[in-house]
Amino acid sequence: MTKLLQGEGIKASRSAVSSFLSRYRRTGSIQDAKRSGRKTKLSNDHVKFIDDRMKENDELTSAELTEKLSKECHVEVSATTVRGVKRNVLVWKSETARYCQFVREPNKMKRFIFASNALLNKDTFEDVIFTDETIVQIEQYARICFRKDGSQPKRKGRPKHRLKVHVWGGISNRGATSVCIFTGIMESIGYQNILERNLLPFIKKTYPDGHRLWQDNDPKYTSNSTKDWFIRNGINHWKAPPESPDLNCIENLWAALKHHIRKYVKPKNKEELVAGIKEFWSQLTIETCRNYIRGVHKVLPAIVASEGGPQQSTTDGTVTKYQLQVESYITFLNNRFCQ
């Protein structure tokens, strides 16, 4: 029955359908049951007050709303009553807070312009080398585990200060650079040495016809010393918009690497950790790199749709509705900045 209703465009839970059918068998009527006639404790104005307070601060609890009703509206009700109104009437549901990258207002337009131009020019990123650095630490347990019902949970030890290493690497549509694993603090000169050993040979071998280097805006990546090094070595640095880790597809690769370390490698010392990183990196194929880079084509229309802000998720997990707005946003961009 639920599937039939969904086919007609009607959303209803299985419990709601079951309740309706039970009432119909009992009463023989499809009309709602008569109410007791008891007056509601909260008027429409009070309900609107609750809704407005929730819109101002979506972290307010029912107890806090009850206190606000008492102080500002002089209405004495229980937190249970407020909870019922909030949940059943206003449809405010609790969920785990979801976080996204922080984008300041001045940088939203820069992200918007970048994404719009990339879409307008149908950039395939064929010649782009996406590079970044991350920290990988010893982790021996995955974030989810299972136990049999009735058995005691198994505690898994985690040291307070875990050994960690820095990892630098790059991916492109033609494959991955060699990986560099090191410890300590990296400054501009150290970064240039890493590029000289790992990036320059890759460019010479894989991109003799030209390239674009993508990196974030970390000070050691954009210092005058590093810029001079780029010029001396013929590096075509493609400046990324600020606060845009979502545009660097290698971030997803780092997440996969850390998952691989904690779930499959489970290192006990530095040697095992380094070996696990190298093993993961050696398995990166050209097709794997391309799969990560294809994700950028989904991110671009999402950034345009949010006008440079953080990406907004869709109900069905796709970016179809973003793609429908791309042309209108590009038109807006051209009208505003190209007159």
From TrEMBL:
It comes from Paramuricea clavata. This is Transposable element Tcb2 transposase. GO terms for molecular function: DNA binding. GO terms for biological process: regulation of DNA-templated transcription. NCBIfam families: transpos_IS630. InterPro entries: Homeodomain-like_sf, Paired_dom, RNaseH-like_sf, RNaseH_sf, Tc1-like_DDE_dom, Transpos_IS630-like, Transposase_5.
